[in-house]
Predict the structure.
Amino acid sequence: MRGDVRNTQEYCAVEIAMEVLGGRWKLAVLNLLLEHGTLRFGELRRALPSVTQRMLTRQLREMEADDLVVRTVYGEVPPRVEYSLTATGTSLRDVAAQLDRWGRWYLDTHGAPARAGNESAGEGKEGKEGGEGGAGKEGEEGEESRKSREKVRAPAVARRGPEPEPES
């Protein structure tokens, strides 16, 4: 997990926002909770079929630590856990709506982003080879930067056996 935002040195406010909201699934969870109110863990999981249980749990814990969501556990059998937005989480409604509008505009004008695995958006020729989650060659420029972003943003993919060694 990442460090506590309160321990962050003097950075610009955008960096603080990215620290709190960054993560492949946080804005998706935020949008679901803004739209539906309180949701159980299983409902969130079904609404986001590409996310693993481990990753969703991790993102929700970070959101709880940053006071975006509140987790309510009911002492029932079977156990019931619900998530809802705090006032801080609800305060992001306009930000989430603006990002949604921008995302729709981007998709309409540029097509799917390269990371989405869309060859028409540049993926395939210069991006990863071997399909989603495969170990292929990356362009030399910015390789470390891309790898670190992919670790944070790429959805987890079930793997069978060890990864193949990259070709030289």
Observations:
- The CA atoms of residues 26 and 59 lie 6 Å apart.
- The beta strands are 39-40, 69-74, 80-85.
- Helices lie at 13-21, 26-36, 41-47, 53-65, 87-90, 93-110, 143-153.
- Confidence is low (pLDDT under 50) at residues 118-163.
